[in-house]
């Protein structure tokens, strides 16, 4: 930050000195930078490979982003759980001002100006892609739905904290039957309309992001990209990727075999076998897609005029196998 302020002050002083010597100072016109805000889900503080804490964590593209940019080691979320933190982030206000203090709060009030609305007022095209989790009013006809608070385009998961990584269709709802709601296999929405697909969320979000970038390359844009990684259930990976990591396929809940609570307890840390590796694999594939997005920016000649911000919504979750070393606590706690 000190370097940015120094450069800005030098530029201001230089213009002032020039103005004292000439009645006609030069006009400097800089293009508006594009902005991409990437929000991960439950990414642990320690889980970046450049920190060297865990040798099985592989995040080369996030490492490069940190090396080439700025690493904010003391940035704090406004809440230790998902939807209050996301409300605070998109509104620039502490979420308790909106009555959101825990899961299932009211979401984004209609009267509050969001970051997307601010960008729109500045002449930006705006897009929202990924997980949607602000509170009770996330449906297409509510203020929390992206296109009702400043986004021109949206590609959203079904509302709620958990999203299946692989299946999103009416056929999946029928296949899963009683388990469909708990496994969160409902279709997505595109610009408010139902959208069905089968495939890995992380790659689909990346493809949608790249398409948005390409479509809006000739105008300044703001893109909010909310990945589901690395929220539970991280074992939901394509078969080929499980093979790459030498990981066994782990089953979703089958109501004919056991109760949901019983299955859930054995499917989270510390009971889930290979939990840290499933989690690490989800981070790796999200990191890879972030690399592809950066490549797309470079291909289009936008890399020098795009600000990328990467953050997690809250601390790493112990039940999802996230690690926050050397900090205390994690998701759900008021420790660091």
Question: Could you explain how this protein is built, in words?
Answer:
With 336 residues, the protein is α/β, with parallel strands linked by helices. The chain has 10 helices and 9 strands. It has helices at 2-21, 60-68, 82-91, 115-121, 170-176, 180-183, 201-215, 239-244, 260-266, 275-299, and strands at residues 34-40, 125-130, 153-156, 167-168, 188-190, 193-195, 197-198, 221-226, 306-312. It has a 7-stranded mixed β-sheet with strand order 6-5-3-2-8-1-9, sandwiched between helices. Strand 5 (188-190) and strand 6 form a beta hairpin. Helix 7 (201-215) runs parallel beside helix 10 (275-299). The model is unreliable at 1-22 (pLDDT under 50).
Quick tags:
single chain; 336 residues; alpha/beta; two-stranded antiparallel ribbon; 9 strands; 33% helix; globular; disordered N terminus
Helical segment count: 10
**What is the spatial order of strands in the main beta sheet?**
6-5-3-2-8-1-9
The structural class is alpha/beta
Task: Please state the CA-atom Rg, rounded to the nearest Å.
Answer: 21 Å
Helical percent range? 25-40%
Order of helices and strands: HEHHHEEEHHEEEHEHHHE
How many beta-strand elements?
Answer: 9
Mean pLDDT over all positions: 89
Shape: globular
Summed up, what is this model?
This protein has 336 residues and is an alpha/beta fold. The chain has helices at residues 2-21, 60-68, 82-91, 115-121, 170-176, 180-183, 201-215, 239-244, 260-266, 275-299, and strands at residues 34-40, 125-130, 153-156, 167-168, 188-190, 193-195, 197-198, 221-226, 306-312.
């Amino acid at each position: 930050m000190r370097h940015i302020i120094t450069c800005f002050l030098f530029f201001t002083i230089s213009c002032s000195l020039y103005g004292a010597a000439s009645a006609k100072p030069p006009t400097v016109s800089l293009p508006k930078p594009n902005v991409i805000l990437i929000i991960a889900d439950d990414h642990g503080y320690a889980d970046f490979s450049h920190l060297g804490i865990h040798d099985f964590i592989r995040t080369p593209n996030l490492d490069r982003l940190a090396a080439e940019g700025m690493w904010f080691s003391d940035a704090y979320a406004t809440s230790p759980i998902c939807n209050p933190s996301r409300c605070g982030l998109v509104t620039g206000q502490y979420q308790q001002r909106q009555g959101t203090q825990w899961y299932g709060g009211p979401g984004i009030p209609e009267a509050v100006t969001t970051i997307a609305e601010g960008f729109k007022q500045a002449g930006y095209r705006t897009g929202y892609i990924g997980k949607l989790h602000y509170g009770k009013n996330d449906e297409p006809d509510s203020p929390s739905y992206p296109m009702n608070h400043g986004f021109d385009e949206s590609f959203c998961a079904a509302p709620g904290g958990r999203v299946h990584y692989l299946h999103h269709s009416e056929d999946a709802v029928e296949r899963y039957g009683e388990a469909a709601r708990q496994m969160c296999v409902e279709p997505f929405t595109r610009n408010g309309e139902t959208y069905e697909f089968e495939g890995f969320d992380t790659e689909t979000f990346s493809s949608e992001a790249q398409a948005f970038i390409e479509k809006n390359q000739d105008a300044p844009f703001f893109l909010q990209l909310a990945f589901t990684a690395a929220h539970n259930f991280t074992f939901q990976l394509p078969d080929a990727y499980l093979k790459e990591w030498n990981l066994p396929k782990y089953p979703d809940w089958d109501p004919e075999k056991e109760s949901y609570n019983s299955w859930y307890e054995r499917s989270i840390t510390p009971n889930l076998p290979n939990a840290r590796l499933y989690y690490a694999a989800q981070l790796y594939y999200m990191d890879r897609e972030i690399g592809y997005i950066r490549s797309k920016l470079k291909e289009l000649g936008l890399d020098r005029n795009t600000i990328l911000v990467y953050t997690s919504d809250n601390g790493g979750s112990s039940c999802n196998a996230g690690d926050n070393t050397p900090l205390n606590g994690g998701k759900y706690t008021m420790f660091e």
